[in-house]
Design brief:
By secondary structure, the protein is mainly β. 2% of the residues lie in helices and 38% in strands. The protein has one helix and twelve strands. The chain has one helix at 103-106, and strands spanning 14-20, 37-44, 50-55, 61-65, 69-75, 88-93, 117-122, 139-146, 152-156, 159-163, 170-174, 181-184. The strands form four sheets. A three-stranded antiparallel β-sheet has the order 1-2-5, with no helix packed on it. Strand 9 (152-156) and strand 10 form a beta hairpin. It is rod-shaped and about 110 Å long.
């Protein structure tokens, strides 16, 4: 006759905390389409090295380390089509014991800042089919911003003008030709 006793691991493997880095403006990425989000995980219990898994937009990323903490970096809040990315996390210890996450910890979304929008119009008098009625005259282009974080900085050619409030705008006198308008908000996020 053989007698023996089975022992269960003393510490249950679990994620102790999940933390999303927050930029000074309150969002988890610097701009809507930037991939600079960060997710912190801290493990507790289990045996030996930890393997942290993060699944989301593209592939599953895994990292094995002896430390019980890990930062996943370079994360995006939205995919290439502008849809929010839902991240899931998993954890495994050296004995292949898995952490079974609660739904709230397994469905993580990064919050992007509000995206700035560029609005513009020609405000000078025009002739039919022409924005500039007389050769050598100029047209006036008015640029506004919407969303994002004020102040904005509107740029056409080598001229940059501030737009400081939702009610303000920047006017640019322009000669005939091709021009490109750009608009950046206070965070450096570009409008489209």
């Amino acid at each position: 006759k053989v007698e023996f006793e089975l022992h269960q691991a003393a510490n249950t493997l679990e994620v102790d905390s999940v933390f999303l880095y927050e930029f000074p403006h309150g969002a988890n990425t610097s701009c809507v389409d930037s991939g600079d989000g960060k997710l912190f995980l801290q493990a507790r219990g289990g045996v030996g090295n930890y393997t942290f898994f993060l699944s989301g937009f593209e592939d599953t990323v895994s990292v094995t380390k002896s430390s019980s903490v890990h930062w996943f970096t370079d994360l995006s809040a939205v995919d290439n089509n502008g849809r929010p990315i839902l991240y899931t996390v998993r954890l495994r210890d050296e004995l292949s014991c898995q952490w079974n996450p609660r739904d709230t910890l397994n469905r993580i979304r990064l919050t992007p800042p509000q995206k700035p929008d560029l609005l513009w119009e020609i405000i000078s008098e025009t002739a039919p089919d022409f924005e500039i009625p007389c050769r050598g005259d100029m047209a006036m282009i008015r640029v506004r911003g919407k969303g994002g974080h004020y102040p904005y900085y509107a740029r056409i050619g080598d001229k940059t003008k501030p737009i400081t409030t939702p009610d303000s705008f920047a006017d640019f006198p322009l000669y005939a030709g091709s021009h490109e308008i750009s608009l950046l908000d206070e965070l450096g996020c570009a409008a489209t």
